[in-house]
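Lab notebook, bench 4. The sequencing result for the construct came back, and we need a structural model before the next group meeting so we can plan mutations. Quick request posted to the team channel:

Model the 3D structure of this chain.
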Amino acid sequence: VQLMESGGGLVQHGGSLMLSCQASGSYSSIDLMGWYRQAPGKQRELVATISSGGFTNYAESVKGRFTISGDDAKTSVFLQMSSLKPEDAAVYYCNAVVKVIVNIEGAARTLEVWGQGTLVTVSP
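Done. Here's the predicted structure in token form:
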């Protein structure tokens, strides 16, 4: 299973940017997709997640400014970022919790998959 992110770049303070993430490969289902970010010298932190049922969860720091959504096929996740601040600058990583079938009896295993990251830079 692979996750491919796109949409990062340079944006001005107060601007908007949309990140996209597409899942590919062999899997049974995706239970949860989300976005995390890591700024230089800081730990990776949750930004937002969306479940297969459409339930969303946001970090307090982005509530009201960022919106996470998924496509109907549940293979892509998007992060619409608005009112961006310099402190939002980071490498943004797509994350997915996926189920894969591991044998002919249909036994499944849950895997956590990460994308390679996309850089978001916010100019003052």
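The chain is about 0% helix and 60% strand.
Will bring this to the meeting.
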